[in-house]
Amino acid sequence: MTAFVEMIVSTFIVIGSVFLFVGSFGLAKLPDTMRRLHGPTKATTLGIGSLLVASMCYFVFLRQASGIHELLITLFLFLTAPVTANMIAKAHIFRSKAVQRTLPRTDGRVNWATLESPSGSKKNIQA
Amino acid sequence: MIAAACTFAIIAISVSVLLNAYRLIVGPDVTDRILALDTMVINAIGLIVLTGIIFETTMYFEAALLFAMVGFVSTVTFCKFLLRGNVIE
């Protein structure tokens, strides 16, 4: 039983560290900001989730300690990763004129809310 | 077996932090640097969790939780500042 749990914990640790490495490698290697967003937001989140599952198995089955804290961290990271990616993508769109030219026009009176000037005036940067 | 896995994981995550530092220094735009900092915080959480497994203590989970919260809030604050020119309007 103990050897089996140790094998599972080791497997989760190796899988998690490999996914963390893949995410960071994608961040360093990919050519564009929008493509660079994919590595950290997906692979790295999966890797840290796997590491926390390994930690939870280790402390619950081998050390008889409570393992609720790791679930909290996993839940928090899985909830906040998409919000972070969305905010970074919005900031990138706001700063890059080349990306703004590829956006389609909206139908409403107001154009893209992300591109509105911070002073609150109706003037749109794209228009 | 767990010790060998922890050694492998620490080497892999350290190389990941170096790659993040490369993107943090080179990154052509501010958004790349924010993304590199965010990834670096996540790698630091991984290192903290591994430290807890190696030293067999549950003391480090609060530190990891605090790192996750502060990392998320700082990233969102950086992006909000870039978008609106102000943090709290």
Strand percentage of chain B:
under 5%
* Count of DSSP-assigned helices of chain A: 5
Number of strands of chain B: 0
Strand count, sense and closure of the main sheet of chain A? none
User: What Rg of chain A do the Cα atoms give?
Assistant: 21 Å
Q: Order of helices and strands of chain B, N to C? A: HHH
What does this structure look like?
The mean pLDDT of chain A is 84. Chain A has five helices and no strands. Chain A is an all-alpha fold and 127 residues long. The model of chain B has no long low-confidence stretch (mean pLDDT 91). The longest helix of chain B is centred in the N-terminal third of the chain and has 25 residues, at 2-26. Chain B has three helices and no strands. Chain B has one domain: Helix Hairpins. With 89 residues, chain B is mainly α. Chains A and B meet through helix 1, helix 3 and helix 4 of A and helix 1, helix 2 and helix 3 of B.
Write the layout of secondary structure elements.
The complex is a heterodimer of chains A (127) and B (89).
Chain A: H1 2-29, H2 33-36, H3 38-62, H4 68-95, H5 97-101
Helix pairs in contact in A: 1-3, 3-4
Chain B: H1 2-26, H2 30-54, H3 61-84
List keywords for this structure.
heterodimer; A: 127 residues; mainly alpha; elongated; B: mainly alpha; 3 helices; 83% helix; flat
